[in-house]
Amino acid sequence: MRFLLIFLALALATSRSHAQGENVFRPYVPSVPAAAADTPGTVSPGDVVIHADPKVEELMRKYSSHKHSIRGYRVQIFLGDHKHAEEAKRAFLQKNPDLPIYQSWFAPNFRLRVGDLRTRLEAERLLRDLRVAYPGSYIVPDEIEMPALAE
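^ that's the sequence the OP posted. Answer follows.
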């Protein structure tokens, strides 16, 4: 009984507002500042004009300036002291200048990891190629750099 009374009261209120010509639901219409409005003659047909908030542009600039890493794989080729790590890094870069190499410190040793590989299959191929020169190398999951886009 209570629900019936509430329903009838809502229906009556809604019908009164429609009868008086009121819109119950008004769509949102953003106001366009006078400076952002296009004046006739400034834009030719077919041109696209984007009016973006400066905060969005600032956010895009900040986003592009940060490094973004993803989960992937690298091949670890060395684990040892600092002096030998530097020598191994120099020797590797002379033979493979196109492969990225990363040196990190894992107490009390330094480690050298090679590559930014997205899949395990890519890592297996690189490991197969490096196993001749570095027999103790192995694949490790790691945070890798985003791949460079082709120009």
